[in-house]
Amino acid sequence: MRAYYYDNEAGSPGQLHDSGREVNTSTLNAMGVLYWSIPIDAEGRWQEAIETVARERTYKNKDVIESSRMTLGEKYDSAMAMVWKEHMHDDEEIRYALGGSAFFDMRELPTDQWIRCHVHAGDLLVLPAGIYHRFTLDSNESVKMMRLFKDEPKWVAHYRGAETDASPRRQEYLEAFGSPQTITVA
Hints:
Number of helices: 6
Order of helices and strands: EEHEHEHHEEEEEEEHH
Structural class: alpha+beta
CATH class: Mainly Beta
Strand content: 35-45%
Radius of gyration: 16 Å
Helix content: 10-25%
CATH superfamily: Jelly Rolls
Number of strands: 11
Number of domains: 1
CATH architecture: Sandwich
């Protein structure tokens, strides 16, 4: 994985948008974002490593999803628009890349700048509940991800706005990782 500040230039979300300003893992950790490099190997040691992380973090369920123009067909553009819109979840978002590559962007506190994480096969990323983020495929337009869940598999997005800013989960995130005051986008 490579993390850097998003350049905010015009262009497709799937372009690199590389500002040239790198972000280290300690900055991500300070935001509550966790990362592991678990290379996929033919012997299956990666599966044991994923199971160890799952036990330590009490993830009980998992599934595998593939996102590409081919797998999503007519739904591709609407699906990409849905996950590109800035949102948060009441639960952690845990993703392990099994193949392909994609971008996870998350808001840094207190600057509200976008930090982009470019993930590839073997990258495990955990976004904390309450962090504003978005997702898109890179120019390869294909990724296969294992999703891990603490309970039953679900994906409920709360899109950024006054109501979500005031939600208990967002406030818990701000108290844990940033300013307890709500940050809003103008």
